[in-house]
């Protein structure tokens, strides 16, 4: 088996023939979605959306990942392991580390690099740091066989977005929205989907609970966070 998942994801919706939403959270499966739950890849070719794989301009051992997971609550550990056969150098790891140290979400990170033992990990504790629309972060992967995510708290909420068509055409933007905060979502591209991750009020008229994905057909819409927690708003478009 090339992947091992002990975390349990709930299927939420398929947006036309384009995107599929799934959501892991404690109350969906309290037995499995707890501290220690894992999602592991054991081979390079089990990476989702292999079509997206492009190498970093400064290292041919650092590549674009599947861009599928969004942490929206709790704490996780992202981890990579490699072997001598991977021919990964200290410079490759420095490139990977420097990339993460310069992201706007870096305050959420506790980065640990152990080149001698061929391991690299980032503990990520979600907090709202993206207060305006921004491209997706954490898009790079070490090109090793092993990569994994481990839940470090019982309250982890992890959104999984899988592209069903036109894998390389989709662009992603995101922002965090505080309780009672509003933002204007502007349509981009021809097909534009907006995914909210907690209770939301759209255009002062329509309320949705928790995870919701909708195609934006007008030029723009007003989104207000009516939950008691920060939430992430994600825009997929092509």
Structure description:
- By secondary structure, the chain is mainly beta.
- The chain folds into 2 domains: 3-158, no CATH class; 169-237, Jelly Rolls (Sandwich), CATH 2.60.120.
- 5% of the residues lie in helices and 47% in strands.
- It has 1 helix and 22 strands.
- The protein has one helix spanning 90-101; strands at residues 3-5, 10-15, 19-25, 38-41, 55-56, 59-64, 69-73, 75-81, 109-114, 119-125, 134-135, 140-142, 146-151, 157-163, 171-177, 182-186, 192-197, 200-202, 206-208, 211-215, 220-225, 231-237.
- Strands 1-4-13-8-10-9 form a 6-stranded antiparallel β-sheet, with helices on one face.
- A hairpin with a 2-residue loop joins strand 5 and strand 6 (59-64).
- The longest helix is centred in the middle third of the chain and has 12 residues, at 90-101.
- It is globular.
């Amino acid at each position: 088996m090339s992947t091992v998942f002990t975390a349990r994801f709930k299927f939420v919706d398929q947006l036309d023939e384009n995107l599929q939403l799934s959501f892991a959270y404690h109350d969906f499966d309290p037995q499995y979605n707890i501290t220690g739950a894992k999602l592991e890849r054991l081979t390079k070719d089990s990476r989702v959306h292999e079509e997206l794989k492009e190498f970093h301009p400064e290292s041919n051992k650092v590549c674009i990942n599947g861009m599928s997971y969004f942490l929206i609550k709790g704490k996780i550990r992202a981890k990579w392991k490699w072997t001598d056969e991977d021919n990964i150098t200290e410079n490759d790891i420095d490139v990977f580390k420097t990339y993460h140290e310069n992201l706007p979400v870096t305050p959420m990170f506790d980065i640990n690099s152990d080149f001698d033992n061929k391991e690299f990990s980032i503990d990520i504790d979600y907090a709202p740091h993206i207060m305006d629309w921004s491209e997706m972060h954490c898009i790079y992967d070490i090109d090793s066989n092993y990569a994994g995510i481990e839940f470090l708290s019982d309250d982890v909420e992890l959104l999984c977005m899988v592209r069903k068509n036109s894998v390389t055409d989709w662009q992603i933007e995101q922002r965090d929205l505080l309780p009672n905060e509003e933002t204007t979502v502007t349509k981009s591209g021809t097909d534009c989907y907006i995914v909210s991750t907690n209770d939301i009020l759209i255009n002062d008229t329509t309320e949705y609970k928790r995870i919701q994905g909708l195609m934006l057909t007008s030029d723009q819409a007003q989104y207000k966070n009516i939950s008691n927690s920060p939430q992430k708003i994600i825009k997929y478009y092509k």
